[in-house]
Design a protein that fits this description.
Length: about 50
């Protein structure tokens, strides 16, 4: 998986959950949380495939 693919997966994950963003929270914090969770999922899947 290259950097472009990782970035695209994060963008798609965030875009598909855009309706969940609450206006009383910072967008950057929300976006970081989505990216972080996706990262943890990727790590878990990578470890599972070893």
């Amino acid at each position: 998986m290259d950097v472009d693919e990782v970035a695209q997966r994060r963008f798609v994950a965030a875009f598909s959950r855009l309706d969940e963003h609450q206006t009383d929270t910072e967008f950057g914090t929300w976006l970081f949380t989505i990216a972080n969770v996706q990262f943890l999922v990727d790590v878990a899947q990578t470890k599972a495939s070893w």
